[in-house]
Design goal:
Radius of gyration: 33 Å
Structural class: mainly alpha
Protein name: DnaJ homolog subfamily C member 22
Helix content: over 70%
Number of strands: 4
Organism: Hypsibius exemplaris (Freshwater tardigrade)
Keywords: Membrane, Transmembrane, Transmembrane helix
Order of helices and strands: HHHHHHHHHEHHEHEEHHHHHH
Membrane topology: Multi-pass membrane protein
Number of domains: 2
Shape: elongated
Number of helices: 18
InterPro entries: DnaJ_domain, J_dom_sf, TM2
């Protein structure tokens, strides 16, 4: 089925930061790249694609003019033209994957053997990022060249804090020098089954997010204002034992039990009332009344506060201004409560009248 430009733009606008439009167009590698970098380095690539989507649609549909132009280019060139944006993407993804894996590995003090062997996979992660971007669209290349470049550079910069970035440079250089080529046959991304594509991308996404999870659990730290350093794990444990969480947990359990007994509708109604969207609770607080106060109680309290906060009782300009503000708030609170009570009484009378009519 031919792909639609307006659908691609709609998906670009609604889910473009996560690569949804690329998935629609069969560009699964591009979709995962956007998912990993939140729209190509926090939305920069996403914005750039505003003018490129029509070309992506022509590529996905393999339109006649597009195919003829592409074959003409392949006959006149042995290799695709150099693209600085693509190379920059290779460097970014290679560096991102390399650093992410190195951050996700537990420290040697905690898991010495695992740290030693897992560190050998960092160049592999770098090569994966370079190869991923290098194979987006109608260009391709073999994995062995960026892999070779990443591992060749790793020993030379083993003790350099920028070793991952240097490995990415070497991997991208070898990939573009020795392996970059045209895709000679149309990719099968659109012809693959939907569930297969979703399962592959989901697996890659889970693996990517698990690396971030490993980093947070094993190596993430934060420092308080007084200079105290706490690991993420300790922070989570402290939070789970904090009074705020225990109170919230108790409230959630109570709400669940309440819902099981009375149903969702009553829970939602009480929640909506607790939000005080009509301002009844705030008005009660201003007048200093309880929820069971009668209309007579409200009137008595209003008259007392009106006399207390009347501006004419205050001579100091600052106190007079504060009293004026409070006087207005008291009047508004009384008016609001009176209106709410009147409407509530009216609704009650109407309900009783309807009940008598039914009888």
């Amino acid at each position: 089925m031919a792909k639609s430009t307006w659908k691609a733009y709609f998906l670009w606008l609604t889910g473009g930061l996560f690569g949804l439009h690329h998935f629609y167009l069969g560009r699964d590698r591009h979709a995962f790249t956007w998912f990993s970098t939140l729209g190509g380095v926090f939305g920069l690539g996403w914005l750039r694609e505003f003018t490129r989507i029509p070309a992506y649609v022509r590529e996905a549909n393999q339109e006649k003019e597009y195919v003829e132009k592409r074959f003409l280019e392949m006959r006149t060139r042995q290799r695709p033209p150099y693209n600085a944006t693509r190379v920059a993407g290779e460097l970014i993804m290679g560096t991102l994957f390399g650093y992410l894996l190195s951050l996700a590995i537990p420290s040697a003090e905690e898991h010495e053997v695992w740290n030693r062997w897992a560190s050998l996979l960092v160049p592999f992660a770098v090569a994966t990022g370079v190869h991923l971007v290098g194979n987006i669209g109608m260009e391709c290349g073999k994995f062995r060249w960026p892999l070779l470049g990443a591992y060749l550079a790793a020993p030379f910069f083993a003790y350099n804090p920028n070793s991952v970035a240097y490995s990415a440079v070497a991997a991208a250089f070898l990939f573009n020098w020795r392996s970059r080529d045209y895709v000679r046959q149309p990719k099968t991304g659109l012809r693959k089954r939907f569930l297969y594509r979703v399962s592959v991308l989901s697996t890659c996404g889970i693996l990517y997010l698990s690396l971030w999870g490993s980093f947070l659990w094993f190596n993430a730290k934060f420092t308080s204002r007084d200079g105290t350093t706490t690991t993420f794990r300790e922070g989570v444990d402290n939070f789970l034992h904090s009074k705020a969480w225990l109170d919230l947990k108790k409230t959630l359990i109570y709400s669940w039990d309440y819902m099981q007994h009375y149903g969702w509708q009553r829970v939602l109604n009480e929640f909506w009332e607790s939000m005080d969207t009509h301002g009844e609770s705030r008005a009660m607080d201003i007048l200093g009344l309880d929820s069971d106060a009668t209309q007579q109680d409200m009137t008595t309290r209003y008259r007392k506060l009106s006399r207390e906060w009347h501006p004419d009782r205050h001579r100091d300009p600052v106190a007079k201004e504060a009293a004026q503000k409070m006087f207005i708030e008291v009047a508004q609170a009384y008016e609001k409560l009176s209106t709410i009570r009147a409407n509530r009484a009216k609704a009650g009378r109407k309900s009783r009248s309807d009940s008598r009519d039914e009888l």
